[in-house]
Each structure stands twice: as structure tokens, then as C-alpha cells.
Write a structure and sequence with these properties.
The chain is of the alpha+beta class. It has 3 helices and 4 strands; from the N terminus they run H-E-E-H-E-E-H.
Length: 147
């Protein structure tokens, strides 16, 4: 079983959703969106107030990071298709709030779409930058509550 089939199967098993997008007149799939329904666990009754706050902060932080990660990857797939493949000037302004920090900016605004490899590399860099920023803000949020 391919790694893609395993990911799709895992999404189905975790009560997720799958959206497969295919370009018109093409046999190639342009993107596959996989969404997971994140379910919060019930709070344990044996935890004291500080531990409950920390546990809640960890769940909130993970939820905020997962939202950021999913949205960034979704936007990057759209921009890749429109800019790097179809060579249209296309960008998305994003803003994510994680704890007290706001991560905002534009994805795809300065891409060189004349050269596919350069476009893809620039887009990969922007994806990694936004995801790392969200991860850092998420970790800072957890550390602030849980220390």
C-alpha cells in the first residue's frame, strides 16, 4: 500500500474528510485535502487547577497550530497550482492568532513564476516559514501557561 493510500485510510479511520481535486482534461490529481475532526478529551477529575489549565492550554495550542498548519498547506497547494503550474499571479494574505501572538503575512506575493523550480522552492520556503512561526507561537503559549 502506498504512503498516500495509508494517509487517506488513516483520515477515514479518524473520522476525517477527504477532498480530491482533479484538473479538467487531466489524469493527474492536483491536490488532495485531508481534514481531521480533532476531538478534545474530557478533563480528568483528578487534576488540580494548575494541571487542568496546562492540559487545556496544550489542547488549545495544538488546535491552533493544527489550524495554522492545515490552512498554510492548503493555501500553498492553491498557490502552487495557480502560480507555479498555471503561471498566474496569485497570493493569499493570512493571519493566525496563537495565544497572544498573531502570525500574519502574504503567501505567494513575490514568487518568480517564470521558472517552475524557483517558484516551487520559494513557495516551499514560505510554507516552512509560516509553519515554523506557528509552531514557535504554539510552544511559547504552552510554556507560558504550563510553567
Amino acid at each position: 500500500m502506498s504512503k498516500y493510500a495509508k494517509v487517506i485510510l488513516a483520515a477515514i479511520c479518524m473520522n476525517g474528510s477527504i477532498n480530491i481535486i482533479k484538473e479538467e482534461n487531466s489524469s493527474v490529481l492536483s491536490s488532495v485535502e485531508i481534514g481531521l475532526n480533532l476531538v478534545s478529551a474530557e478533563e480528568s477529575s483528578y487534576l488540580d487547577g494548575d494541571e487542568e489549565a496546562c492540559e487545556q492550554a496544550q489542547m488549545d495550542s495544538n488546535r491552533m497550530f493544527n489550524t495554522c498548519d492545515y490552512d498554510v498547506r492548503k493555501y500553498v497547494a492553491e498557490i502552487h497550482r495557480e502560480t507555479c503550474v498555471k503561471r498566474h499571479d496569485y497570493s493569499v494574505d493570512v493571519s493566525f492568532e496563537i495565544g497572544a501572538k498573531v502570525i500574519s503575512g502574504s503567501i505567494g506575493s513575490n514568487l518568480d513564476f517564470a521558472n517552475y523550480n524557483k517558484c516551487k522552492n520559494q513557495l516551499d520556503y514560505e510554507r516552512d516559514y509560516f509553519i515554523a512561526s506557528c509552531r514557535s507561537a504554539s510552544n511559547d503559549y504552552k510554556a507560558k501557561i504550563c510553567t
